[in-house]
Specification:
The chain is of the alpha/beta class. It has 16 helices and 15 strands.
Length: 421
């Protein structure tokens, strides 16, 4: 099987740190923070991952005061499950040198209250800035974490993995693991698009038959849970000043990066969750790639595509664009979809329409998980694609039931075909 959307370094780190995935509410979350703080030496940076406050009874993040009380002697940051929002205490903000209300370019926000004080909530680039203020793993820790991530995916049955937004050290590190005989699968790397030309020039130092540079990664919007995914219609309860989320990428930059990747004989994988972002990326590909649609190596990918307007569904096949989706997100986004986008439910993951429009599972339509954002078990995506609801729930809970596909089609979407994707 192929895992078409993973983050190996983050997976390795997450396997080595406390998780908030199973937390049932704010009190339990803070209990876990206190336990992590009690187990750490004073001053040690504490990080916990996979918070889902939108699913808690309180439906809110811990405040900066909550986290200061739970972790008084340690910088502490909690990352959302989708890695697009976080909550931090005062010490963590100080460690990242983040000021009150500061905007972290290009799209990060430090949320403040009416008095101008930080609430502890961080969005997009601000979340990454504080998360990244923790000390980096040592080279030995990094290699052990990376091997743990590879072994984890291999145990699930994957023989190929696509790493999205790959770090500059990842190719050389994986090459060293391969030389030591510990690379259990083939790996395709997608570094940030801004670094693609430099990585292309240096790829001969680490590429092999099982390890290669496939393309570059860009972000066109945010996520549903943070209400930053770019939508054609307004959110219910939107973020301030963002009634429809936001496009996080300049159109001219996107077109430039698409053309640059094609010039190298590669392609881009562009994150687009909301229907407005999907249309934005399709429009750019349509403009740039008119004469190259038949060139498989240059067939660009759109990642996530959680909502697609009906008018844009046939454009994937018409433009030769690969639709790379993670159906398992339907299972994790149920609360956010009903709370923020109940008027768009019928457009969530239109897999049936995509296949009927000409996309072929495993070739033009490919499945992954976005691990460690959600777990990598392919059974979750098969459950979501075939049954459109969480296991054990009634059929009436299904989201966009008409978009269900067969189990055979879902399994085929995990199966690598002889193509560059």
């Amino acid at each position: 099987m192929r895992e078409a959307h993973a983050h190996l370094a983050s997976l390795g780190q997450s396997l080595a740190m406390p998780s908030l995935e199973s937390c049932r509410g704010l009190a339990e979350c803070l209990d876990r923070v206190r336990a992590a703080a009690a187990a750490a030496a004073p001053g040690t940076f504490i990080r916990l991952h996979s918070a889902r406050p939108e699913g808690w009874p309180e439906a809110r993040w811990p405040s900066i005061g909550d986290l200061d009380a739970a972790s008084p002697d340690n910088p502490c940051v909690l990352m959302s499950f989708d890695h697009h929002a976080a909550a931090a205490n005062t010490a963590a903000l100080a460690a990242a040198a983040i000021a009150h209300g500061q905007c972290i370019e290009p799209n990060g926000v430090v949320v403040i209250d009416a008095a101008g004080r930080p609430t502890g909530l961080l969005l997009e680039g601000a979340a990454y800035a504080v998360w990244g203020a923790a000390p980096e793993p040592t080279p030995t820790e990094r290699r052990l974490q990376l091997r743990a991530a590879l072994d984890h995916l291999h145990a699930l049955g994957f023989s190929e993995v696509h790493d999205l937004h790959s770090q500059d050290w990842l190719g050389p590190e994986l090459a060293a693991i391969e030389r030591a005989g510990h690379l259990p699968m083939s790996v395709h790397l997608y570094p940030p698009a801004a670094r693609l030309e430099a990585d292309f020039a240096a790829r001969s130092d680490w590429e092999s038959s099982r390890l290669r540079l496939a393309g570059g990664k860009l972000f066109a919007d945010g996520t549903l849970n943070s209400r930053t995914a770019a939508m054609l219609a307004d959110y219910c309860d939107p973020m301030p000043d963002m009634p429809r989320g936001q496009i996080m990428l300049d159109g001219a930059v996107l077109r430039e990066r698409l053309a640059a990747a094609e010039h190298l004989g590669l392609h881009l994988a562009v994150h687009a969750i909301g229907d407005a972002a999907v249309r934005f990326v399709l429009d750019a590909i349509d403009e740039v790639s008119l004469r190259r649609r038949a060139d498989m190596a240059r067939r660009h990918r759109i990642e996530h595509c959680e909502l697609i307007d009906a008018a844009d569904v046939p454009r994937f096949s018409q433009l030769g664009v690969v639709c790379s989706v993670q159906p398992c997100h339907l299972l994790s986004d149920v609360e956010a979809l009903h709370r923020y986008l109940p008027h768009c439910i019928d457009r969530v993951l239109p897999l049936r329409e995509l296949i009927d429009s000409g996309l072929r599972p495993g070739d033009d339509l490919i499945f992954g998980s976005d691990v460690p954002i959600v777990r990598a078990d392919p059974a979750d995506s098969i459950q979501a694609a075939v049954h459109r609801r969480r296991a054990g729930t009634p059929e009436s809970d299904a989201i966009a039931w008409s978009q269900r596909i067969s189990e055979h089609e879902a399994r085929a979407a995990f199966t690598p075909h002889p193509s560059p994707h």
